[in-house]
Amino acid sequence: MPSDVIGAFTEFDIVKTAEMARGLQPEARYLFVVGGSSEFDRWWLAKARADLAAFSKDYETTYLEDLTIDEFVKRAAEFPRDSIVIALTIFKDSAGRNFIPREAIRQISRTASAPIYGPYPTYVDYGVVGGNVVTFESLGMTVADLALDALAGKPISNLESPQTYIADARQLQRWGLPEKNLPPGTVQMFREPTFWEQYWFAVVAALAVITTQGIVITGLLIERRRRRKAEIESRRRLLEVVHLNQSATAGALSASIAHELNQPLGAIRSNAEAAAIILRSERPDLKLIEQILIDIQDDDQRAGDIISRMRGLLKKRSEIDWQEFDLNEVTTSAILILHGEAERKGVVVSSNRPPRALPVRADKIHVQQVILNLATNAMDAMLEMVATERRLVLETTLTRESQVELSISDTGRGIPDEQLASVFEPFYTTKPTGTGLGLSIARAIIETYGGKIWADNRPEGGAVFRVVLPLARSG
Ligand code: ADP
């Protein structure tokens, strides 16, 4: 170069390319250096021989030169797998054919059975793994900087373009060479972003949604278990409370029930005495005695019924006995239980019912207990009225399509309007010996079976309590 030429220089350090190959293939045992037959090719081969003298000592080294392109291709297919192949330039083969070197390299790399490295960036995408190179971009930048400095009148001197390691990610994959063994700072080309790099946002978002969903579902499951437990506990308590309520009712009714029981028992005794007298006569009237015995049987049956109703009232249960029954039937049996008490208190009990059955699904004894609570309250409320005006009416109807209603109305003093809701509160009572639990238990029972209960005052005086329950499906 004339002495007044200043420029940017490229240094081709073939040893650095070889070191890169060693890093990627630490187990390699063979080294092949490929070069063409042009003057420049031969210069390169000679320089590589000198530069790689130390490096090649660790390998069984072969310089492939003075070959035709076909011979290169053929030899390339025979490289042992544990070989490092360094391609220099092939501007011309031994048969005198001219090449753009990278075109020749492409042909060789197609059949090559070991990875090929090279000192030029233009070899990438032509089947080469990579190498230590000066990119034409960086060379151009260096020259341009020099020119700019010169134009700006700054002092300038020769510069070397920076070297970089480059690698073709597809070739790394082709030969199974791990990315982590590349020299630090290697620029990877044709690298497909990993699944994570491409979709990390969607993955994170999906995981976040799944995790949130998981937390919510777990929370709901825990909540559901707690609710189930609470429901079981509340049922158990309800059963206990209803049983206490039943016992209290039985206690309250015991005087009238005992009185009621006296009637058939008294009749049995009188009939037995009459039969004894008849039998003592000379010609006992056997027809009459037969009739007396039939009466005794009937009275015994009546007494038995009274006792079994009382027993039913006192029966303790550990589970709700769900069954389908006719609400009319339970109303009738409640009236029979109350019959004696009503008589004692001078209350006239009557009932209105539709001709059809009103099936509901619940525990029969529980619904009967509701009726007993409402009816005994009604009778209590009428105590202060004139005896001729004490009337208790139990009425059952089918309201709308799928509900049955039971109303219990009395001719008592009624309930102050502002107390209509609070009478259902536990411990609300206006009676000196009251517990204030009857109505709250009645409400708990009815709500357990999906129904509703509320109180009203009748326009003509007295209170009316209404209970609605869902009609059982078969009805
Ligand atoms: P208790 O009968 O022990 O007082 P309840 O819960 O059965 O408890 O009733 C609560 C209160 O509601 C009664 O004390 C009474 O004041 C009122 N009550 C209930 N039924 C009637 C009714 N038919 N007429 C007027 N008041 C009533």
TrEMBL record:
Domain of life: Bacteria
Protein name: histidine kinase
Recorded GO MF terms: kinase activity
Keyword Phosphoprotein: yes
Residue span, Histidine kinase domain: 256-473
Annotated transmembrane regions: 199-222
CDD domains (alphabetical): HisKA (cd00082)
EC class name: transferase
Keywords: Kinase, Membrane, Phosphoprotein, Transferase, Transmembrane, Transmembrane helix
Lineage per the UniProt record: Bacteria, Pseudomonadati, Pseudomonadota, Alphaproteobacteria, Hyphomicrobiales
EC number in record: 2.7.13.3
Catalytic activity reported: ATP + protein L-histidine = ADP + protein N-phospho-L-histidine
InterPro entries: HATPase_C_sf, HATPase_dom, His_kinase_dom, HisK_dim/P_dom, HisK_dim/P_sf, Sig_transdc_His_kin-like_C
Family matches, as Gene3D superfamilies: 1.10.287.130, 3.40.50.2300, Histidine kinase-like ATPase, C-terminal domain (3.30.565.10)
Pfam families: HATPase_c (PF02518), HisKA (PF00512)
